[in-house]
């Protein structure tokens, strides 16, 4: 169950979760109910008993997450209005020219927040939870977000990119677009690090800088 006061500045994330639920059926716990009453906006989900994914080198969970991404890659957000904030809008302040962010645009349903706690591993399968930052985007962007999380858990940039390249959308992506994405993540995580003293923010900022350096050095 997830709830926020109806007037909370992030209540739109509740709407995104509700909108993503029918699209992500089968790879995420089912949304059972959603109400906005008495000053609260509340979502109730199917209970899945599981643990957070292990992203460390050699973990069998990595193959489970790869399978989850294969299933997600087939899902598109239908045209029309919705509670979404397109990825090119979300990241436009982190690129040299706002038009560069169009490299990330697409209609794929992307999750964008691949922290291990958002993957529940249960009885040999993985479930994707917490769709607060779901957005329409290019299908390769989710593997790109994920590879940063793999690096943060001990993989080299080369190893993480190899896992991402198992996903056809990432393997087919324009390398120049991935370069733009890598630089945008440096700026985004630097900003988060500046506004947070938490170890995870510092780790992710350091990881993003490391990946961008590799992208710059690779011919």
Question: Which labels suit this protein?
Answer:
single chain, 219 residues, alpha+beta, Aminoglycoside 3'-phosphotransferase, Chain: A, domain 2, three-stranded antiparallel beta sheet, 8 helices, 42% helix, 15% strand
Quick recap of the structure?
This protein has 219 residues and is of the alpha+beta class.
Number of helices: 8
Any low-confidence stretches, pLDDT <50, length ≥5? none
User: What is the C-level CATH assignment?
Assistant: Alpha Beta
Count of β-strands: 8
Q: What's the structural domain tally?
A: 1
Describe the structure.
The protein is of the alpha+beta class and 219 residues long. The protein has eight helices and eight strands. The strands form three sheets. It has a three-stranded antiparallel sheet, with helices on one face. A three-stranded antiparallel sheet has the order 4-6-7, covered by helices on one side. A two-stranded antiparallel ribbon has the order 5-8. The protein is globular. 37% of the residues are buried. The model has no long low-confidence stretch (mean pLDDT 94).
Note the topology.
Elements: E1 2-5, H1 12-23, E2 31-37, E3 40-45, E4 51-52, H2 61-72, H3 87-90, E5 108-110, E6 119-122, E7 125-128, E8 135-137, H4 141-152, H5 157-164, H6 168-171, H7 175-194, H8 199-217
Antiparallel strand pairs: 1-3, 2-3, 4-6, 5-8, 6-7
């Amino acid at each position: 169950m997830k709830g926020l006061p109806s007037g909370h500045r992030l209540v739109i994330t509740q709407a995104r979760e509700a909108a993503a639920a029918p699209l992500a059926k089968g790879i995420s716990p089912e949304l059972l109910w959603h109400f906005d009453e008495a000053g609260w906006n509340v979502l109730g989900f199917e209970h899945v008993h599981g643990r957070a994914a292990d992203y460390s080198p050699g973990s069998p969970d990595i193959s489970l997450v790869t399978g989850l991404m294969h299933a997600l890659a087939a899902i598109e957000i239908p045209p029309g209005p919705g509670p979404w904030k397109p990825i090119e809008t979300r990241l436009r302040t982190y690129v040299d020219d706002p038009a560069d962010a169009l490299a990330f645009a697409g209609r794929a349903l992307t999750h964008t927040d691949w922290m291990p706690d958002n993957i529940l591993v249960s009885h040999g399968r993985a479930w994707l939870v917490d769709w607060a930052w779901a957005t329409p985007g290019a299908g390769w962007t989710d593997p790109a977000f994920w590879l940063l999380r793999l690096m943060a858990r001990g993989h080299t940039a080369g190893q993480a990119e190899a896992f991402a390249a198992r996903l056809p959308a990432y393997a087919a992506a324009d390398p120049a677009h991935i370069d733009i994405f890598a630089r945008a993540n440096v700026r985004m995580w630097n900003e988060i690090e500046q506004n947070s003293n938490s170890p995870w923010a510092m780790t992710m900022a350091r990881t993003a800088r490391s990946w961008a350096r590799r992208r710059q050095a690779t011919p």
